[in-house]
Amino acid sequence: MLVLGLDSATQVAGVALIDDNRLVAETFFNTRKNHSQRLLPMIAALLQEAGVKPAELDGLAVALGPGSFTGLRIGLATIKGLAHALQKPVAGVPTLDGLAWNAWEVPGLVCPVLYARRREVYTALYRWQEGELCRLTPYQAVEPYSLAASLKSYNMPVYFLGDGVEPYLEVWRQLGPSARFLPSTGILPRAAQIAMLGRKRLQTDGPDDLFRLKPLYLRPSPAERQNP
């Protein structure tokens, strides 16, 4: 199954193409440039280099959030436009799920943290069990000190990753030797993980409703706060 995955939920812009379990191509930028100007050229270049025509795709996957309100809207609009034009099925994948997959079968908790502004991070807790990544908590926006305090009760290693690691590094280090950190090459969102998880969803649960698919914000968007 040939699936194109897209992730623009954070400052990272990523596009990946997978063929079943094989990663065919991936483009990754962490340069803080405008996603709206970058995504379509990235997709076109990636498909051209892979020798794949858009019509040959079997499905599309996109990171739903949480993350940047603007980045999520741009990513979802891009995928919806492609899906409508190509008549292809779409799967939405929570950003935190894709990020957690970077910590492949680590022996402890997986704690992705995305910088959420307002002195909060977006997070959820995961653990590998018999080869499956299981989410233990809801997706949430939480104050870093509160999160660190709750993690102490688990009494096991906690693997942190995401763009919320660096801004609150001293908070996470309060866990002492239980705090573990992935290398910089594996700490940020990967479109390849979104494509892989999207393929699994398309095969097991079927596609999402293109017209009802919405970003996973966790908190009201700026427009919603202005117009309650």
From TrEMBL:
Residues 31-171 form the Gcp-like domain. This is tRNA threonylcarbamoyladenosine biosynthesis protein TsaB. It comes from Neomoorella humiferrea. GO terms for biological process: tRNA threonylcarbamoyladenosine modification. Pfam families: TsaD. The gene is tsaB. It comes from the Bacteria. GO terms for cellular component: cytosol. InterPro entries: ATPase_NBD, Gcp-like_dom, T6A_TsaB.
